[in-house]
User: What shape does this take?
Amino acid sequence: MSLADSSPPPPPLQAWIRNECEARWHALANCLGKDPSIFFPEDTVSNRPHLYDEARRICEACLVQVQCAEAGKHEQLGMWGGMSPSERHPKKVRLKLVLE
Assistant: This one.
């Protein structure tokens, strides 16, 4: 294959490239190096709307927000992909309110 050849890589190589990109998305995240308590506050019991404001601002312009949301879709705590636990699991929040 020459440099002038613009054909796509063979399927096994395409899969490897896709897997490598998916595995390394967090290296491109805006939250990298930030204080984890911004995204995982200790006060998770109260459902204060402003609890995740700083995290939301960081996530808003993140290039890997979709990948982060996918990675955190089953997480019970913290901000993932710009979504708080109640935004990721609205049915659980409603059920908790009904049961209380």
Observations:
- Helices lie at 11-23, 53-60, 65-71, 85-88, 90-99.
- The chain has five helices and no strands.
- The chain has one domain: 11-99.
- The CA atoms of residues 78 and 84 lie 6 Å apart.
